[in-house]
């Protein structure tokens, strides 16, 4: 293997985009991915002339992705993907922040006895959205390019920094899982579930309650979500990135800076970015081979803390082919449709005939 400056393990979208920015700065990169293709959960497949998304169904936080692609000079055609929320036969479309009132009205329709609790929850959602706007809104530099900033730019950023310093302590108090945080407002498990069941168990309240911001920022790449991964891969190959698919790293020596793949090939690195499973990373390091006591103890502690953890709930995808025109669906909902049931995921349902 040629001696590249950085090895990146994990060719999902995070590892691929990290490689792209390094190449942009003239840094040589080897990108290693255990699967046959790059992209990870950002992938699509075709069957009988139709494109299906195998992982990600749309690009959330599109502002960040669009800014990233623009900075890299990658042209990816996107179309707006409007989100709909439905409970039974009541469906609302989310196009702007005022639609939060529609969500409140829908909750009150199904849970009239919880009206005061719902008002308090909606107020909390609006408050958390304001906090997140400080982090992700137009004033935040997160969407701006990485070029050197002028004094004028810094004058714009300083007021934002003041807001950020005031906001971070408030966000830090929202680290509880959303299901626990909602108990501060209601003890009704069905109402709690209807609000939080779009999220994996244990999702921090700061993320879940601000998610209306992301609902307004959904886009869909023409040709499927896998188009994003393919566009980034094309960028990498154009710049002679050393891409090695079907390459699983099986051992790592952080002292000698060596990794080894499943075929016994050994690679030396100056710097490494691990963009793969963190638990797996610590499982392939042999602490006995590390002479430095402090480093060995840190690795052992990290391995111990990760040992009993498992991935969040998986999602079962069912793909259906139906003999109905697209107009049938557009008359009911928009492109991205969430339909939780009224009782909530954890509440036993009464069978109906």
| Average residue-wise pLDDT | 87
Which secondary-structure class do the elements indicate?
A: alpha/beta
**Biggest sheet: strands, sense, closure?**
4 strands, parallel
Number of helical segments with 4 or more residues: 13
Number of strands: 14
Q: Given the C-alpha coordinates, what overall shape results?
A: globular
The neighbouring-strand order within the major sheet is: 9-2-1-13
Name the poorly predicted regions.
349-353
Question: Approximately how much beta-strand content do the residues carry?
Answer: 15-25%
State the distance separating the first and last CA atoms: 65 Å
Radius of gyration from the CA trace?
23 Å
Series of H and E elements: EHEEEHEEEHHHHHHHEHEEEEEHHHE
Fraction of residues in helix: 25-40%
Describe the overall structure.
By secondary structure, this protein is of the alpha/beta class. It has helices at 13-24, 62-72, 100-110, 115-136, 151-172, 178-182, 189-196, 205-208, 212-215, 226-238, 278-283, 293-306, 326-330; strands spanning 6-9, 29-32, 44-47, 50-53, 78-80, 83-87, 90-94, 219-221, 242-244, 249-253, 258-261, 266-268, 271-274, 336-338. A four-stranded parallel sheet has the order 9-2-1-13, covered by helices on one side. Helix 1 packs parallel to helix 10, helix 3 runs antiparallel to helix 4 and helix 4 (115-136) runs antiparallel to helix 5. The N and C termini lie far apart (65 Å). 24% of the residues are buried.
């Amino acid at each position: 293997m040629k001696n590249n400056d950085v090895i990146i393990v994990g060719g999902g979208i995070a590892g691929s985009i990290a490689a792209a920015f390094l190449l942009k700065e003239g840094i040589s990169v080897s990108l290693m991915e255990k699967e046959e293709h790059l992209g990870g959960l950002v992938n699509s497949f075709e069957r009988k002339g139709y494109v299906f998304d195998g992982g990600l169904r749309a690009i959330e936080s599109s502002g960040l992705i669009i800014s990233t692609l623009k900075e890299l000079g990658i042209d990816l055609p996107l179309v707006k993907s409007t989100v709909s929320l439905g409970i039974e036969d009541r469906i609302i479309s989310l196009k702007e922040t005022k639609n939060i009132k529609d969500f409140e009205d829908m909750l009150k329709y199904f849970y009239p006895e919880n009206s005061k609790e719902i008002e308090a929850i909606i107020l909390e959602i609006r408050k958390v959205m304001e906090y997140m706007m400080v982090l992700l809104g137009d004033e935040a530099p997160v969407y701006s390019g990485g070029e050197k900033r002028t004094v004028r730019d810094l004058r714009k950023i300083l007021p934002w920094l003041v807001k950020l310093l005031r906001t971070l302590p408030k966000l830090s108090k929202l680290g509880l899982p959303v299901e626990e945080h909602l108990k501060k407002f209601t003890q009704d498990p069905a109402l709690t579930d209807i609000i939080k069941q779009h999220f994996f168990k244990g999702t921090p309240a700061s993320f879940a309650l601000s998610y209306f911001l992301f609902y307004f920022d959904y886009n869909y790449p023409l040709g499927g979500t896998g188009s994003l991964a393919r566009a980034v891969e094309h960028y990498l190959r154009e710049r002679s990135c050393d891409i090695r698919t079907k390459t699983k790293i099986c051992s790592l020596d952080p002292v000698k800076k060596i990794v080894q793949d499943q075929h016994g090939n050994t690679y030396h690195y100056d710097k490494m970015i691990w963009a793969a499973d963190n638990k797996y990373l610590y499982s392939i390091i042999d602490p006995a081979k590390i002479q430095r006591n402090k480093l060995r103890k840190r690795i052992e502690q990290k391995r111990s803390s990760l040992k009993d953890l498992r991935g969040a709930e998986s999602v079962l995808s069912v793909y259906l082919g139906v003999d109905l025109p697209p107009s049938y669906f557009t008359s009911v909902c928009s492109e991205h449709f969430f339909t939780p049931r009224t009782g909530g995921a954890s509440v036993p349902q009464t069978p109906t005939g």
